[in-house]
TrEMBL record:
The keyword S-adenosyl-L-methionine does not apply. It comes from Bacillus mesophilus. CDD domains: MATE_SpoVB_like. InterPro entries: PG_synth_SpoVB, Poly_Biosynth_Transport, Polysacc_synth. The chain crosses the membrane at residues 12-35, 47-69, 90-114, 134-152, 173-192, 198-221, 250-270, 303-323, 344-367, 373-394, 406-426, 432-453, 469-490, 502-520. It is found in: Cell membrane. The lineage of its organism: Bacteria, Bacillati, Bacillota, Bacilli, Bacillales. This is Polysaccharide biosynthesis protein.
Amino acid sequence: MSGSSLLRGTFILTLGTYISRLLGMIYVFPFVALVGSQGTALYSYGYLPYTIFLSLSTVGVPMAVSKFVSRYNALGQYDTSRKLFRVSMLLMLSMGIVSFIILFIMAPVIAPFVLGEPDSTNTAGVNRVEDVAFVIRMVSFALLVVPVMSAIRGFFQGNHSMEPTAVSQVVEQLFRIIFLLGSVYIILKVTKGDLTTAIGYATFAAFVGALGGLLVLAWFWKRKKAKFDEQTGQSVGTSTLSSKEMIKELLTYAGPFVFVGLAIPLYQVVDFFTFNKTMLEIGNAKKYAEYVYSIIQFNVPKLVMIPVSLATAFGLTLVPAITKAFTDGNRQLLHTQINQSIQIVFFLTLPAVVGLTVLSDEMYAMFYEVDELGSTLLAWFAPVAVLFAFFTITSAMLQGIQKQKLAVISLVFGLLLKLLFNVPLITLFEGVGSIIATAIGYLGSVIYSLAMIKRHAQFSFKLALKRSVLMVMFSVAMVIGIILALWAISPVLSYTDGRWESIILTILGVSVGAAIYLYLSYRSNLAGKLLGNRFKVLKRQKVNG
């Protein structure tokens, strides 16, 4: 495959992924307006077990399929690639069915744990055990389709055909969102139905979206099947791998990657089983506990993950280069790429989370409603984004230097810290305590990962630390600018006046903060050194220090 075609395919896949993520964030705001905190809490109760079971049912096989199909194709063993595809399809179908059955049956067992109590007493305005079980069962149907769809995507990507994955991702998200918002609106506003039914259909939208994505993949398969058949007929040599050996190879490669990819859901699982129970034990009403849970598990993460996704995407593009430099034994290039990745992630994430913290009142009111607790929890949660971004990039680096087991150890270490501190901190600080426990967990993982990178890549952090100090100084200047701008306009506008006022203040604050940070980064040539190869306009003619 030519370099230009590969670049085009990668661009299409990246674009499709971003459009899908953007759609997945936009729908949240009308959804929250329709169902409120009780509805978002119930939605989270159902979706988290599904996410865990989905990851366990796919176990990273689609990514492994992509790698091994590409490898066998490069060897001219196209028949082996097709056999691998058939084996992976059968494996994904089997695991999807098993996962569906287990989750469907276990739903009534899981539900009491998340609610923190086994009965359904005092149910006015709160979710009951039977509500949670119903929602979990509704979303479990997606497990029958999504794993199979993921294997097909892996096969296409292994053949360097990125369009099917990109288009199917967007269509899947569109089908899901249209069905989700449409069904919730009809049930609640048109037929005046109950909230539990509406949320059940909202989670069932995952199954509807998966069917849409599968239809797109089937269409692409019909178009490309003749080409794949022709390739198979041109196979040279034959692999002696049996189906059992293929499955073992797939799972061995994919295991560590999928486990690290489960970081966010696994941290949420800790809260899933401990948060409401602890809140009730310290004397809070169940309705209040669910209200706080909905904010820290649904509302706030949706806002915080926007800058994280962008920053980590930029940083992770350098990981293949890290892998190649390590494999080639090019220590100097390896250090350069690690340095670049770390600095880019911090450069992009820091101002974003600082802005979210300073503008937490305005942003929460803009996207949701004026809510003192919501904006407070957003201000506390935003800095965790820096730690999560670093966890993502350092885990990828460890895998890039062939230290997958250390990446898994890093995650386990962080999870143990979260487990250790979660209940005591929730007892002391309620919702803020859960966020602090999450921050402690990610911080422990990041420190461990950085120590392992230093040891196994013989890497020095001096340059990264030096430039990080500069980024912190620019962020402080940005904060001062935002505060002064909001103070100057405060006699005229306040975020408590309404959504439009919040929008104006958010735009003002973001514009002032971004202008200050980018100007200082440009004048110091920091932006040029980090992103100049990607954005030529950021490079200054005269390089400063």
